[in-house]
Every structure is written in C-alpha cells, then in structure tokens.
Amino acid sequence: MKVIVATTAGFCRGVRDALEVTxxxxxxxxxxxxxxxxxxxxxxRQVLAMLEEKGIREENDFSKFxxxxxxxxxxxxxxxxxxxxxxxxxxxxxxxCKRVARVHAVIKRHARNGYHTVIVGDADHAEVxxxxxxxxxxxxxxxxxxxxxxxxxxxxxxxxxxxTTQNEEVFEKICERFLKRYPGAVVNNTICGSTHExxxxxxxxxxxxxxxxxxGGHHSGNTxxxxxxxxxxxxxxxxxxxxxxxxQNEMARYSVVGISAGASTPNWIIRxxxxxxxxxxxxxxxxxxxxxxxxxxxxxxxxxxxLGAALLPMVVQALTGLEASLSxxxxxxxxxxxxxxxxxxxxRNAIQMNDPGRAAFYHQWRSAFTWVSAGAVGAxxxxxxxxxxxxxLGLLILVLLGVSYAVPVILPQWSDNLSVLKIxxxxxxxxxxxxVAWATVTVLLPFLSHLGQSFLSLLYAFWIVFLIVxxxxxxxxxxxxxxxRLVGKExxxxxxxxxxxxxxxxxxxxxxxxxxxxxxxxxxxxxxSYLMLPAVLIYxxxxxxxxxxxxxxxxxxEALIEAVVIGMGVMALMWNYAxxxx
Length: 582
Ligand code: SF4
Fold this sequence. Notes:
Blueprint: E1 2-5, H1 13-27, E2 35-38, H2 45-53, E3 56-59, E4 69-72, H3 79-87, E5 91-94, H4 98-112, E6 116-120, H5 126-132, E7 139-142, E8 158-162, H6 168-181, E9 186-187, H7 193-205, E10 211-215, H8 221-232, E11 237-240, H9 248-251, E12 256-261, H10 267-279, H11 287-300, H12 303-320, H13 326-346, H14 348-354, H15 356-364, H16 366-387, H17 389-403, H18 429-444, H19 455-479, H20 481-487, H21 492-496, H22 498-521, H23 528-531, H24 533-549, H25 554-578
Parallel strand pairs: 1-12, 2-3, 2-4, 4-5, 6-7, 6-8, 8-9, 10-11, 10-12
The chain binds iron/sulfur cluster (SF4).
Iron/sulfur cluster is lined by residues 12-15, 74, 97, 99-100, 164-165, 192, 194-195, 222, 263.
C-alpha cells in the first residue's frame, strides 16, 4: 500500500510550547515537588499517560494547588479561574498558546466597549470556556449557521470570533449569515494558521488518495474537525488514536492512503500508523475484489433490501395459495427501499463508525438518495391506492411511523418524568419494528381483501415473515454492534449483549422450524413451508460467522444474510410457477 503523510501532521506550535513548559518544569523540580496541570494538558491519552509517568498530575481541585506549580494548558482558562489559582497559592506556569491569548485580548477589548461576543466553537471545549470568560457575561457560543437566526436582532455592537481550531468552511458559512443579520458587526477570523494549513492540506490530499486516516484523540476538537473535513470530501475516513484501531483486512481495500494528524498527536504515534499501513498488502484487483465491490455497491444502494421485500409477497403466495400481484411486490420494494434509505440518514453516526467506506458512499450520493427515496415513497403510495383505500391508509400510517421514528413524539416540556421522547428511544425498537413493518407491507396490506376468508393462513404467513425478518435484522445488528453501541442506538444486541442475543436468535430459529413444520402438517400452509427449512440452517451458519468474524468481511456477510430472504423468494417464484401461479 502506498502511504502519503501530510506535511502538517503532528504537534502544532502551541502544543509544542506547552509540552516544553511542562518538561522544563519537570527538569527543574526540587525534591518531591508535585507539578499539576489544570485540566488535561492536551487531548491525547498516550502523551498524558507518558507525562503521568514523569509525575505530572492533572487536577481541577483548587485546594490541592497551595504551594505547588500549576501549568495552564495551551487552550487557556477564564480570568476567574486564574484568580482562583492565585488565591489558592499556586505558582502559575502559563502555557496558554499565544494565538489563543490573542483571541482573549480581542474579546476583552470589545467587551470593555459593550460588545456582545459570538464564538463559533464547541460550548464544552476548554478553549471556548476560556474565551467566554473574557466576554464579561456578554458571550454566546454557536456552531451551526442556522443558530445565527436565533440570536437577538436588537444587538448593536457585535463581535464574531472562532475557536482557533474550527472548521474553516463552517466558519465562513456562519460569517456570511452573521453579516446579513448584523451588517455593522466586527468579524475576526481567529482560526489559527496551523489549523488552516492542516485542513487545507487534508482537502488537497483527498483528491489523490483512496482513503484518509486521521490520527489523534477521540476527544480532540481539532482532530475531529480534520476527520470532518476529509468526510466532506466524500472519502472513506478513519479517525484512530493508534494503529490498533485499524483493521488490516479493511485497509487492504485501498491502494493509496493519506495520513494526517491532530495538533496534539506525537510523531511516534503517527509513525506507528504509517508503519502499520505500509505492511498492509493491497488486495489484488482480481475477480474476488471485483465481486466484493459489486456486492458492496448493491448493499450500499439498498438493492438487497428492495429485492427481498419485493419477493416476500411471492413467499406469501406460495404459503397460502393467495395470488400476489406485481403491484404488491412493487409496493413492498419501494416502501422497504425508502424506509431503509431514511434510516441511513438517521444512523449516519453509527454507519461512520462501522463502515467509513459506506458512509463516504452515502455522503457522495446523499441528494440522489433523498430524491430517489422520496420518489419511492410516492410510488409505493400510488401502488397502494390501486389496491384500495384501506391498503393506502395502512401504508400511509406505516410511512408516517417510519418518518417519525427519530422525531420527538412527546414535547420536551412534558418529558420531565418520561425517558421516552422518540419511537427510536424505546428499548429494542429498531430490532422489532423492522420485522413488524416488513410483515405488514408484504402480508397484511397486499392481502387485506382476503382477510375475511383466509384469516388463519394470513396470520400464519405474517408470523413466518415476521420471524424470518426478525432473524435477518438481528444478524445485521450483530455486524453493526460496535458503532451502534457508541451512538447508543436501541437494538437488542446493544441492550442485552452478544451472548444473550445469540441465544435469542437460536430460540427464534427453533421457533421458526417448529412453525414451518407445524404449519404444513396442520394445513395452515402449503408444503412450501418444508422448502423453507434450509433457511434456518443458513441463518444458523450466518450467526456463527457473524460472531467469529465481525467487521472483517462486512459486505460479504451482509450479502449472505440478505441472500436468505432473496433465495426463499426465488424458490417461491418457481413454486408458484409450478403450481400454476403468475
Ligand atoms: S491549534 Fe493553533 S491556537 Fe491551538 S494550540 Fe495549536 S497553534 Fe495554538
């Protein structure tokens, strides 16, 4: 693999100076003198661990500082905290970065003249907390352009500054909107030169590499921003703390990888990542690679989902003998495609963590997905209308439930004593709502008019489809558990863990086997039920593979899981044809 390292990667001037101040203090230490840093010196766990070994203690409790040296980190602190440190009897070693100190001075000068200060940054970041301290109580923090519209319109004297490590493009957008709202505002782009160069180089690199690896602390604001810049370029982006966070098989997909790093990432960590990537053998672009890529693109485009949903009414026909029309198949396919595409938007954080390649694909095709999904919703509703008013209303309710899945259904002011605000906040909601929706759109809605005379057969088909889609959904959740866990998504596996979920899948497969045999033997369905039994074995095999090799061959496993529903659908087509179906 070819690895290109950004020339701007690694410590910035401010971080280098802060480390020098601290290391010098260690050298000059007398006896068992303790040296503290007020908060973490930099956002890098490995460097902090190294400093701790040298006897540097991170502390926020002022009572501990009496008679000791305290390093103020590069991010700076509010003036009140400096006062408190002095009152506590600390000897201050000021390592505030000069560029941050300059912003302090700008805010202080304007605050004295009655200006409101608007800071573009992260409200909980140490640097921003420090900047706010200089605004004399007249400071506000925003980080999205639309927040400008919520600022009071009657402010006459307004200053706009940025956290020194802000995303430049975001700042520019905010600036444009800000000047429209406050034409007389003072705007000071305080993003530091080091941040500017780093982001510009990442943007430039993205055009010549297959993927970007951004190295730095998961809590480091400037590293997060670098990863954001790379993702905006629609390129697979991996934010890692060390090489241990990278997966060799996954990285083997790429021929050329670019590396950049946050301002607090030491060179030795960057070097380790480079060495690791240089040992990765890029997969030859042979047949296997091409097949994998095609499987990947089909999964990214929700093609398996649409095809599986389209074929399920055929399975229902094979089980019950009731005829499924092409329109039924189309309605199910369009609905499933649209709702899963919507889910991509809702799950984007988890997708980014589970599969950056997929996240980059969706970022690149976002507007196409939005339009095609809107078209698919319209098409499914039109086909439902053709089936009758009840089918149309049923599908409309399903669509509305899907769309409102992540929207608060209980107003925040009523929610003091309620933990559930959105449907997605209901524990395991995703795991069970998907199979219910699929069974409704492939069994209930297409065959509504037969409900009177074939109620039990349809109830049976609903149950079988529900169980099949339930196992499929849980297996896919098992593949995605890492990302889901980090973003707190409510799936069964996140709630109860992988072991209990595996037992639940095995129990469901036993139930499916019993239901298939009992249905055919008891006359509730045709003997097609027996032909579905191999699906149970394939799902059991998929479960074993998911647990052993998760994340290694994600697109292949996903295809194997989806292949079960599609395979059953194809068999049902042949069965229906053989018994004189469509
Ligand atoms: S990123 Fe810029 S402002 Fe922040 S510490 Fe480094 S040099 Fe200073």
